[in-house]
Write a structure and sequence with these properties.
The structure is a single chain. 64% of the residues lie in helices and 0% in strands. The chain has six helices and no strands. The relative contact order is 0.07.
């Protein structure tokens, strides 16, 4: 738990105000403090084991981590479609309209 300079719990409103000042000083566009958590999870979701990300975020389950804070990045989507194209691409171009896949 984080505390104030006199040892009392931080008021969420004061944390938000201070974050807004720091955000503006850094030249960042408007965003909520929680948006940073989402951005962190999304950036690290690629290439980092889900278990590690779960522990870094303090979640109790991997499902919570993956469902709450991450999304499929455009690069990952392109890579997945590229893999499908490499697998099925030559079959789709043979003019059989899927007969090769069905039979």
């Amino acid at each position: 738990m984080f505390t104030s300079s006199i040892g009392t719990p931080l008021e969420p409103r004061n944390v938000d105000r201070r974050f807004d000042v720091l955000r503006r000083q850094a030249g960042l566009p408007w965003l909520r403090l929680h948006d940073l958590r989402h951005a962190f999870a999304s950036m690290f979701a690629e290439g980092v084991p889900a278990r590690t990300l779960m522990e870094l975020l303090g979640h109790s389950t991997i499902q919570l981590t993956m469902n709450t804070h991450t999304h499929v990045m455009p690069e990952t989507q392109r890579e997945a479609v590229g893999r499908l194209d490499r697998i099925f691409g030559d079959q789709a171009d043979d003019g059989n309209d899927g007969e090769k896949l069905a039979g």
